[in-house]
Amino acid sequence: MKTILTLLAFFSIAAAAQADTGAGGFQGPDGRSLVTAAEVEGLADDTQVRLLGYIVRKTGDEEYEFKDDSGTLIVEIDDDDWRGVNVSPGDKVQLTGEVDKEWNRTEVEVDSVQLAE
Fold first, then answer.
1. Where are the domains of the chain?
2. CB neighbours of 97 closer than 8 A, spacing ≥ 6?
3. 109 membership: H or E segment, kind and range
4. pLDDT values of the chain reduced to their tens digit, one per residue, 117 residues
5. What does the alpha-carbon distance between residue 27 and residue 35 come to, in Å, rounded to a whole number?
6. Which of 13, 81, 95, 103 is the least crowded, having the fewest Cβ atoms under 10 Å away?
7. In angstroms, how far is CA 105 from the centroid of its own chain?
8. Rounded CA gap, 77 and 58, in Å?
9. At a CB cut-off of 8 Å and minimum separation 6, what does 84 contact?
């Protein structure tokens, strides 16, 4: 009988925990460190990063020159990753993505573009 009561108590607690429908999630660093354009070169391939600066010009198909106080680098932004954000060279942006090291250059593959506050 004691075992049955223990099991009933356990299932009651589990059911109550699942009944909580409040939205929740992780509250902390997202693994995308804020880095400068100059620092990207020294990072490992596939490192998650955030950049804060300016997209100054288009250099190719879905490729752009990004600039901050430390220098410039090429970023790749797929058309669907703009998500409706329009940017001019004077707009400060925050880019999130990952480092892409190729045999002859390093760039950032951007996942999202946001206007900086």
1. 33-115
2. 48, 49, 51, 75, 108, 109, 110, 111, 112
3. strand 106-115
4. 666 545 445 455 555 555 555 666 655 445 677 999 999 999 999 999 999 999 999 999 999 999 999 999 999 999 999 999 999 999 999 999 999 998 889 999 999 999 997
5. 21
6. 103
7. 21
8. 10
9. none
Asked whether 40 and 49 are in contact (CB, 8 A), the reply is yes
The CATH number of the structural domain formed by 33-115 is 2.40.50.200
Q: For residue 110, give the nearest of 39, 70, 52 by alpha carbon.
A: 52
107: β partners: 74, 100
Distance, CA of 99 to CA of 19 (rounded, Å): 41
Residue length of the chain: 117
What span, in angstroms and rounded, lies between the C-alpha atoms of 64 and 60? 7
pTM of the model: 0.73
Reduced to 3 states (helix: H, G, I; strand: E, B; else coil), residue 24 is: coil
State the residue for tokens 């075992």: 3
- Please give the DSSP secondary-structure letter assigned to residue 16: H
CA dihedral 90, 96, 100, 104 (to 10 degrees): 10
